[in-house]
Amino acid sequence: xxxxxxxxxxxxxxxxxxxxxxxxxxxxxxxxxxxxxxxxxxxxxxxxxxxxxxxxxxxxxxxxxxxxxxxxxxxxxxxxxxxxxxxxxxxxxxxxxxxxxxxxxxxxxxxxxxxxxxxxxxxxxxxxxxxxxxxxxxxxxxxxxxxxxxxxxxxxxxxxxxxxxxxxxxxxxxxxxxxxxxxxxxxxxxxxxxxxxxxxxxxxxxxxxxxxxxxxxxxxxxxxxxxxxxxxxxxxxxxxxxxxxx
Length: 246
Prior knowledge:
By secondary structure, the protein is α+β, with helices and mostly antiparallel strands. Helices cover 22% and strands 39% of the residues. The protein has helices at 2-38, 69-72, 176-181, 236-243; strands at residues 41-46, 49-57, 63-67, 80-84, 90-99, 104-107, 127-132, 140-157, 167-170, 185-196, 208-210, 216-223, 231-235.
């Protein structure tokens, strides 16, 4: 009996030790991601709001700040936004280009940043990490899993016809929607997306979604209205297509 109790105690201690090591290894890994990824992440601010962006290395070897097109809409009349780095410094940078095929935007980089690397599409249920500024608050890391691909429809209102990469509808002058809500036009856009169950909130737009090694394989751009946490991510293929010209 005493021998059996001794063996049970030994295995209990071993199980607790393994759990302790596992928990601490996970904390160390997340701390590494916060330091490594977070150093490249910035807050993008402007007129009426903002979001997140991050330094990324383009195929040419040049470094830029990548964010969402809708985040870059906060630019001023000269096409510039405020970039706030993790040391609290504010840099005024120009919006270089937006991408009609998806919700992406390129901004001038802050000098001295190396940029994150891009990776290939991941396997279903693989681990995902998002580093950004939810609610435009201090840097936060959230984790989840890749849930699969989904095509979604988004309706953009009151944008120019030339800026609509989808189906454009101009509302009639006497339309009730136009008279009561001020909606003059609607652009229906179909987006190919990657889904994750990592928590996504307002302000996370433009955050990098990375794998366990810290390589980028998507950019946060929207939150699902049908689930508590699920977020929509710009797939890595679109990111690579956008950056290949730079």
